[in-house]
Amino acid sequence: MGGLSVSTPHIKRKSYTWLYFLLPSIAIMLLFFIYPILLTFFYSFTNLALTGEAAKQLKFIGFDNYIRMFQDPTVRISIWNTLVFLIGSAVIGQQVLGFLIALLMKHKSKVFRRIIGTVVLAGWVTPEIVCALCLYSFFGDEGTLNAIISFFGISEVTWLFTVPMLTVIVGNIWHGTAFSMLVFQAALDDVPNEIEEAAVVDGASRLQILFRITIPYIKETITTNMMLVTLQTLGVFGLIYAMTGGGPGTSTTTLPIFMYNQAFVNFQLGYGTAISLLLLLIGIILSLFYIRSLKE
């Protein structure tokens, strides 16, 4: 009995030693993630501003910022633009294009995969603002695209004013597709060749192998990549701001652009933080949807 009474406290102390190794990570999480979110949540209920009477004294104004937000027609436009940009550049663009590139590179030689991979990765490793400037030069009135189409006798188009949303969608696809390509390339390399060879022997076509074997085999990777690309695309700011500034008008004003304009152009920080929480809520809802799909 004496031996048991001595060893029991030792076992309990040893079982909690893992907590000491997590303390630095917990502290960083609290300081740089939890605390800013709580502070943002608090400021969204205040009249925090950088100019005017509100800048002199911070006041609690309740749900006034949220009432103003849902009555503002520009917010509804920004939500719609955000969803269009998200679906066009992330769900359809990066996801589908990244998968197709990875699929085409499967079973190819190392030289071919290295060349194509380098070309696709060039857009991903380039800083966002540099990508925006390159795309602005490409889609500008005197840019590369108009020079190409004018060479074939086609009249020039003001791309950034005629189809501004399409230009930023194409830009984000070029900038972010490489991430999806790398994820899908790793997943496709793990698909057993024996299964595909057996399907070929049984008379299955390439499309049947793709939709009945390959895609179901990597469905978890598809869902995970979709979640990561979605959350990344929701926060895209520099690319759109440098290319169009959210215009013309509000045609490319997404929630990050609108939040920035209200907080740092109009100096209404309280209203801007309320918009940022709306963006955070959309990200949480989409994440929960993807997590549930992944479990199923």
Automatic annotation (TrEMBL):
Alphabetic keyword roster = Cell membrane, Membrane, Transmembrane, Transmembrane helix, Transport
Annotated SUPFAM superfamilies: MalF N-terminal region-like, MetI-like
Q: Provide the GO biological process annotations.
A: transmembrane transport
The source's superkingdom equals Bacteria
Q: Where does the protein end up? A: Cell membrane
Major site of localization recorded for this protein: membrane
Under Pfam families, the record lists: BPD_transp_1
Sorted alphabetically, the Gene Ontology cellular component annotations on this record are: plasma membrane
Q: Where is the ABC transmembrane type-1 domain?
A: 80-290
How is it placed in the membrane, per its record?
A: Multi-pass membrane protein
- Transmembrane intervals: 20-43, 79-103, 115-139, 145-174, 222-243, 263-291
Which family does the record assign? Belongs to the binding-protein-dependent transport system permease family.
Q: What is this protein called?
A: ABC transporter permease subunit
Origin organism lineage: Bacteria, Bacillati, Bacillota, Bacilli, Bacillales
